[in-house]
Amino acid sequence: MADLITVARAKQTNELNQVDTLLLQQLIPAASNAIIKYCHREFVEEVLVDEKYDGLGTPELFMKKFPVTTLTEVKIRELGGTEQDIPTSEILIYEDEGKLMFDPLANTTTIYCHFPRGLQNILVSYTAGYATVPEDIQEACVQVITNMYSYTSSTKNPALKSESLGMYSYSRDSKADQVIFTNSVKMLLSGYIDHSLA
């Protein structure tokens, strides 16, 4: 998982500009990972080669990562194991949804107009994610880091509900995540959550 912001971006804020760089280098990946898990998706652009999908017998296929910025190759693995290349010009790309769909108006050169049923029979090579992470995601990351920092600086662990010493016991406060993921953070991230995996 890639970091959603840089140390320089974090230090642009009043709350974090005096925080030690080494500490920020630890908090940034933690906050980035928390946001990625909360949204059920990656954000930083990456190239994916021969990513496998199950064909569902429909003309559309949803990519695991989005937005899709470039579609390089689509192949259908047939029953005998041979692979049929599908010209990318015959595929419509819905970038923000991460959806590929056979173009019903395309002058097709293949026998396919849908992704045939099968297990891991569709191979897609594409580029997905943001070349520059959107500002609202970066701001959410800054706020999560600020919340994490304020609690690492305090004497009480916000996740700790109770603790004992004899025959050691520990219980976690279920509301601790609400302290890190405030309503403001949730609002900034609301448009980026992959609800298909939620």
How would you briefly describe this protein structure?
This protein is an alpha+beta fold and 198 residues long. 27% of the residues lie in helices and 28% in strands.
Describe this structure in words.
This protein is α+β, with helices and mostly antiparallel strands. It folds into 2 domains: 7-43 and 133-192, no CATH class; 46-128, no CATH class. 27% of the residues lie in helices and 28% in strands. It has helices at residues 7-10, 21-39, 135-153, 176-180, 183-189; strands spanning 46-55, 60-62, 68-77, 83-86, 91-94, 99-102, 118-128, 160-164, 169-172. The protein has a 4-stranded antiparallel beta sheet with strand order 1-7-3-4, with no helix packed on it. A 3-stranded antiparallel beta sheet has the order 2-6-5, with no helix packed on it. A two-stranded antiparallel sheet has the order 8-9. The model has no long low-confidence stretch (mean pLDDT 88).
Secondary structure elements and their pairing?
Blueprint: H1 7-10, H2 21-39, E1 46-55, E2 60-62, E3 68-77, E4 83-86, E5 91-94, E6 99-102, E7 118-128, H3 135-153, E8 160-164, E9 169-172, H4 176-180, H5 183-189
How do the SSEs run, as a string of H and E? HHEEEEEEEHEEHH
Task: Give me the number of helical elements.
Answer: 5
User: What is the residue-mean pLDDT, rounded to a whole number?
Assistant: 88
Q: How can the largest sheet be summarized?
A: 4 strands, antiparallel
Strand fraction equals: 25-35%
Number of domains: 2
Low-confidence stretches: none
- Could you give the count of β-strands? 9
Structural class: alpha+beta
Q: Give the overall shape, derived from the CA principal axes.
A: elongated
Rg, nearest Å: 22 Å
Fraction of residues in H or I helices: 25-40%
| Spatial sequence of strands, sheet with the most strands | 1-7-3-4
Distance between the termini: 19 Å
